[in-house]
Amino acid sequence: MQVDVIPTVNETRADELNQKTVIVIDVLRATSTIVTALQHGCPAVVPVETVQQAKQIQQPEDLLGGERYCKKIAGFHLGNSPSEYTPPGIAGRRVVLTTTNGTRAIQKAQRAGCLLIGSLLNAEACARAAFSVKRDVVVVCSGTQDEFCLEDGLCAGLLLRELSRLDGQPLPTNDLGLAMMLAWDTAKDRLEETLLSCASGKRLTKLGHRDDVVYCAQTNRFALVPVWKEQSLVRF
């Protein structure tokens, strides 16, 4: 099993994802929010690229969620804070979600053989799901505005460590994958501090979302893995 890491959505080529298991990561905050929504009873999340698309496909009982530049979209029910995706409001209701980076990465990865959603919150479960599919794996870090984000890289490093543990030996990876495993080994014992210190963490803290950063820094809190099926994300 080959496991490669791509640093940003902009560097992702859709034709390189064919017949592979793709794990999309946007730790702060889209994929953490998707995992949280499904964990709390949302039956499906529909990721779209634009606000217009979200409004066009919304059905009467759907919730609209999303952000632009870390701020809730005007007229939407929910933003992109995981704290908003909790019972009772979320249970039993589909969410149509659009974010600046994460949902764009998911859309770009739709040609994958199997598309999974990863975060620090569900890393171990996500690695197990990917390992069970028995395909080569590509980890796509969403990044921010086409720039690499440390929090996504650290999550990629954790996923690689988990996959190697499941395989019982080091797995072949590209240079970025190797670098992110080493970065994870360095940061894992002070993860919250590291995420609060990175560019995305500092930006969210400045906007009043420090609690989101702390929440998203938790590892292996949930055993749930979102998977792409029939144009939406559901439980694996």
TrEMBL record:
Signal peptide: none annotated. The keyword Hydrolase applies. Its cofactor is Mg(2+). GO terms for molecular function: 2-phosphosulfolactate phosphatase activity; magnesium ion binding; sulfopyruvate decarboxylase activity. It holds the Pfam family 2-ph_phosp. Its EC number is 3.1.3.71. InterPro entries: ComB-like, ComB-like_sf. It is an enzyme of class 3 (hydrolase). PANTHER family: 2-PHOSPHOSULFOLACTATE PHOSPHATASE-RELATED. Belongs to the ComB family. This is Probable 2-phosphosulfolactate phosphatase.
